[in-house]
Amino acid sequence: MEGHANLEGLKFCFLFGPPFRSFLKITTLKSGMIFICIFDIIIGCTGAFEAVVFFIKFVSDLSYYYYFETLIGLLDFISLIFALMCLQSLENLSQGNISNYYSFKFYEYFLIVIMKLGIVITNTYDENNLILPTILITIIQRYLAIYVVKFVWSFDIRLNNNEVKLITIGEQALRTLNLQGRSAGSQGIQLNYE
């Protein structure tokens, strides 16, 4: 339990609090990671399609807007590849691909911020686009994306510290097992959960 106490003192990017213990406080870390990977796969498929469409428009129009949208679509497609590798690693909880997925999500977050900024800047000269809604939608998207990145970081850090039970059965079930273990221990019964 000493490793667990040390994890609660960690903060994501030094200011976003300790690692999560569940996904949206309703399901296990593993279930949440599966959901995020599947969502990334769906977004990656649409991103690949959008990348092709925006690239065709970029070649015909040579607009920076289409250039940035093409790059975002390509990032979504690359995210699909990392999500597939991560999903495969979730079955046996192997660390390598999960850590790679976290690293990619971390850098992807900042790359998309830069590209979205490029989209906003290139749209300021277009009279048909409304800048304020674009900025508000981008802020909401990035807020949700930082939650996803922190969640993937939480999963990775907990797996790295061998908190497999927390990842697979969840916080409530783990708490129940610990209470049962304490009461069995006080009665002289040894329980082994591994």
Automatic annotation (TrEMBL):
Keywords: Membrane, Transmembrane, Transmembrane helix. The chain crosses the membrane at residues 33-58, 64-85, 106-125, 131-153. It comes from the Eukaryota. The keyword Transmembrane helix applies. This is Uncharacterized protein. It comes from Stentor coeruleus. The lineage of its organism: Eukaryota, Sar, Alveolata, Ciliophora, Postciliodesmatophora.
